[in-house]
User: Fold this.
Amino acid sequence: MRNDAGGAPPRLELRGITKRFPGVVANDAVGFSVGPGEIHALLGENGAGKSTLVKIIYGVLHADEGEVLWNGQAVSLANPHEARRLGIGMVFQHFSLFDGMTVLENIALGLEGKPDMRSLSGRIVEVSKAYGLPLDPRREIHTLSVGERQRVEIVRCLLQDPKLLIMDEPTSVLTPQEVERLFGTLRMLSAEGCSILYISHKLQEIKDLCDHATILRGGKVVGECDPKVESTRGMAQLMIGAELKTLSRRGARPKAATRFSVEALDLASDEPFGTSLKRVGFEVGAGEIFGIAGVAGNGQNELMRALSGELTVATASSIRLDGKPVGNLGVEPRRALGLCCVPEERNGHAAVPDMSLASNALISARNRMKLAAKGWISRDATRAFAERIIQEFGVKARGPESAARSLSGGNLQKYIVGREILQTPEVLVIAQPTWGVDAGAAAAIHQALFNLAQNGAAIVVVSQDLDELLTLCDRLAVLNVGTLSKAIATADASLEEIGLLMGGLHGMTPEVPAVHGELGQGSGQHVA
Amino acid sequence: MSLKFEPRREIPAWLVYGTPLLAVALTILSGYFLFMILGLNPGATLYIFLVSPLETQFGLAELAVKAGPLILIATGLAIGFRANVWNIGAEGQLTMGAIFGAGIALAFWGEEGFWILPLMFVAGALGGMMWAAIPAFLKTRFEVSEILTSLMLTYVATLVLSILVHGPWRDPEGFNFPQSRLFTEAAILPVILEGTRLHAGAFVSLFAAVAAWVLLTHTVTGFQVKVVGQAPMAARFAGFSQKGTVWFSLLLAGALAGLAGMIEVAGPIGQLTPQLTPGYGFTAIIVAFLGRLNPLGIILAGLVMAISYIGGENAQVYAQLPQAATGVFQGMLLFYLLASDFLVRYRVRFQSTKARDAKPRPEVAAA
Assistant:
């Protein structure tokens, strides 16, 4: 569907776009063009500058240098309103929907002017039918699954009859089946002449969907290719800029003793729109890596808090560590027994952004690593431990006194994972180990987890990233609406099977709330 | 052109410690113009206000007498503020401490005994803690804002004091004046420097501030306070109790404010009166922030604020300045401090009005 032969000007062309932020050049003389009806991939690691670039195209940010051409005409995109007027639509990675309002109300809020609700409702049904995106305008957002919420965002864009649709990491929260369905819609749009700028770091998807790919690294365009022809490995190397390191996987292991077990764990969520856990149970043996898959908002947060001890459960025996009931113990007593955790959110949960790396070592390691005997902090021991994490995990930081906030996401994650692993835990529970982390850091973290398991620890990985779970885990189970499926060995598991367990059947999981669905357009922080 | 504020990525240390100095300088400058408008000789008035308190031994001793309670209270408050516990009611805790201390002094009126003063110290601290425990309980049990409860309890404490000095504790030989008997010698803090009012309280304050500094920088408890204040989720992850921290910081602040109140009645005042302080409990909030919530900084800030009290009194006497001038001076100081604080955290950028409608989101810089 690429349409560059006709001599018509490209729908969108960027020339020499440069955007600087204090301390970093996010985009450095970026240029490429998207033809009418073309599905164009913008490929790059986290931090490569993709999100900044599309925010410039959508008028949210302003380029310091360079120009944007729309159908051959130079345009100035002062704000998203003007971008929409030109026919540019964008579906953000994080949705901007109000949980307590209906689909219709949410869409009406996003449109210019004051639409007539009755005819709008009709148009929503019409558009959603035409593009295979079934939606009931009267449903309230909090009753929708993440995939359905994304449909709301897409329909909102489609109602404005876009000529260019920007999709920012649209599949990161979707099940495989939902992804297929989305691709169908996008292909249909493309056939009608709507250009699509598709942002992702998932290579297989880009091969399946896109006509052309522009690869960004460190804010610069480092290559263009036809993803249908180029190998995934080739694209990955362009994206990462180095030879891919192959993980040294472990060999087959004999069946080992159970180190960590959860049995009939019930937990009522204490948050509005939270998900309560219902009779969750699993066992992890020594040296085993156990995965918990599932779309966000299916009880992952609650499970993490229950496992870490941030929430205690009344029945002590529902969580056992080496046979010892620990369900009623708090965070520190569990840590003393050898249960360490890495929460999903780095900033403000696993680490205090404004504190130094050394101080952040005290957060979880003060007792196990004897950094503070009898309540007195040993500065030397703390610094030395922070230094050791920095060294052994290759954290790029000026030193133990650097503030945690001054590190990039990947480096901070390495530091946090290193902090827990160097405590030689008996059991490690880790959520989204490589979320928003560059490929180099991700590989290092995966290797560290393998090594920890090799030494006999039991590891629980809670992740939305199926590829990651399939790489890491010996067995996995799926968390869906607070219930955990039976465990399956990853060697036997197929993507389809897991996808179905994740509730990929449309409309099957009406109660799934999105934890990540933040309000406010283009909600910051997470950079694709 | 329009103004735009961008958060700074890294805040240079000189800026953090330089802003209080800037605030003081701007306050003096504004004072200069204020006095000029009032038709006074601005230079001479500023001299009376700021320098005259430092010229005599008596003045310096007075400085310590005034700075003592401010430093003591501000130290306790700063630890709470670090933990995001906004105790605004130090004045009430001070009053309760004074009442409890005075209770001991009056109960053993006329008696000898080295143990009376230490007992008053304990009672004063307990009184302040008891008063601070009420907001702590309401906050941890019902999530009631401690800002409101602690502030409102200040007025309750003042009324309790009023009842006592008008009623049961009124001096029987006091010609019906609403005040207690003068404490006897065993219940009075000894004067350290002959010819001045300097008493042991100043050293209590100094010791408390240094101890608080050690607590904040060298102990897990201090670390806990900071983590709870900066990142509540991380505090949970660290295994620090949020409620425990609320209790700790309120009780500590209450104890120190209570001590300050007890020291006031056992020191310079020597009896219980309806007007115990010139608002030390509130001024201490300014002192805590002027000192950057750092106990060592608070020592300096307390001295600066004490100068403004004494200078204000001198200015009333020698330059016929109204008493309100002291309040204006202190108010300006807090105003400039908060304003320059904002500039520490944000940098000012000018940008063309064309891009005005866009949402500036500098924090989404590619990390």
